[in-house]
Amino acid sequence: MQHDLASQGWGSRVDQYDIIDKHTQSGLELVEKYVKFVKERTEIEQNYAKQLRNLTKKYNPKRGCKEEQECRFSNHQSFLDILNEMNDYAGQRELIAENMMMNICIELTKYLQELKMERKTHLSEAKKAQQSLESTYKQLDSSKKRFEREWREADKAAQYAEKTDQDINATKADVEKAKQQANMRTHIAEECKNDYAAQLQKYNKEQSQFYFSDMPLIFNKLQDMDERRVRKLAQGYVLFSDTERHVMPIIGKCLEGVTKAGTNVNERNDSIALIEQYKSGFERPGDLDFEDYSQGINRASSDSSLGTLGTPKGPLELLGKNRSKPFWLFSKKSKLSPSPSSLTTLSTPPAPSPANGPPSPKFGRDPLSYCLKEINKTVKPRISSFRTLGRTPTVTEDFGHLPPEQRRKRLQQKLDDIGKELQKEVDQSAALEKMKDVYEKNPQMGDPASLSPQINQTAQNVERLRGEFNKYEVMDSPLLATDALSYSSHSFNNNGSTHEPYSPDGTHSEEGTPDPSQAIYAEFDDDFEEEEEELVAPIGQCTAMYNFPGASEGTITMQEGEVLSVVEEDKGDGWTRVRRANGNEGYIPTSYVSISLSK
């Protein structure tokens, strides 16, 4: 029965010890090779995940940067969603590497050490059995040789005794002695023969035990060990795919998130969001009226009001005008569009020249030469004002650098933030008061005096936030009271109202019949009108309620409590033009001052 079992396994191949030894060693080396392969795979996965995370971190917008502000657009937000999904995807790759390391590399390495110890034990047992058999064989060979030697000696002794017995010259004593020696040698030979037979029986028994029991059992154990190794290695092969297959649903969700991010992009909503974000609240400028140069212009009148009626200019040409003022395309009244009353004046003959008074001292007797001399003064400032078009205005506390609509939104947002913070401080103050009341009624719960610093600090915070809230509320109130209709109405008044032009010396000049020579001076009328405006008398006074840095171009600094002269009222864009006693002029936020106009 045992022989039948042995014939089904490695035990039937007891003569293939060296082959079994090499085969089992090759199997263990394969396990080591597979563990090394999986380790390198995990390193690749970890490096891949690390590179993905670095990639997503590189393209994620930093807090407070311009890209973060653009996340309100769906295409920008979808890109951020894709970055988040890729970050999650990187996490799944890390999970794959971690599971492979734990379930395959560590487990197989531990199992490999056990197999090595077991294989070493089995081979040691086989070696001991083989050494025992070899030792028995040596004993058998030694007893055999002794038996052979002793049998020869006994044979010689017997032949000598027979020869002596037949020798007539030998004495009886010699014969007896020879016979005794032969008997002794024969007895010794018989003992060696018996020992040899016993050693032979022992060796045959051990040899049978070695080849039919010990070695087949050891080889079967090695076979079982190798089959377990193969089965464990096959499980490692399966885990190699199962580890990645288990995270595939989550990876699929990440990819679905990327697809969803692409489908969530709405170009129409992005366009609307852009409009809402940068809507200024200004109305579009009206059409320019036709200026009929076919009618004559009184030369004397044109001399005294040089360049009053210039060639119409586009929006970019207006940048050269009022270089010290903030530039809003739709904010100021356009001096390019003469009112209907001024057009009427053009068609009527002007009054005689003496009625207009003497020409401005700045022109002298030759206004044309003065204008030509002023070319170098006017061209460079115009170029510099083109360059300032791309500059970013300095951000001010009252958001005065923004257009009215954007300023209103930012002020409203600031009010909401301060209101939330104020409500939080008020609630905390109420909670502290209640806790103090509880401590006063139940002294064992705590000391009421310990809450005084917190109560005082909270009260200071509430007072500070209320002051800020009132300040921004004052800034925001003029803008909240201005709607689209008021903007439209005011824009119409600016473009269509009748206004009398001033001559450079500040005197009134009536428009007369156009003269061809006046077209030469049309390019310089903007600069002359700046000088005209500097001579305009104040229309009232204003008192500063807050400090204003005047950091942006065209503004003027202002200290709280300072009294300034109002030169030009707010035209709906939130700015008022003022003048100091030293003659410096500039714009300040209307909401920062208390204005009293002269009646």
Compact overview of the structure:
This protein is mainly α and 599 residues long. It has 14 helices and five strands. A hairpin with a 5-residue loop joins strand 3 (575-579) and strand 4.
Question: How does the SSE layout of this entry go?
Answer:
Layout: H1 2-7, H2 17-59, H3 66-69, H4 74-166, H5 172-263, H6 267-278, H7 299-304, H8 340-347, H9 367-373, H10 375-387, H11 404-441, H12 452-480, H13 484-496, H14 525-534, E1 540-544, E2 563-568, E3 575-579, E4 585-589, E5 593-597
What descriptive keywords fit this protein?
599 residues, Substrate Binding Domain Of Dnak, Chain:A, Domain 2, 5 strands
Describe the structure.
- The longest helix has 93 residues.
- The chain starts with a helix and ends with a strand.
- By secondary structure, the protein is mainly α.
- Strand 3 and strand 4 form a beta hairpin.
- Helices cover 62% and strands 4% of the residues.
- Among the domains are: 262 residues, Substrate Binding Domain Of Dnak, Chain:A, Domain 2; 64 residues; 58 residues, SH3 Domains (SH3 type barrels), CATH 2.30.30.40.
- The protein has a 5-stranded antiparallel sheet, with no helix packed on it.
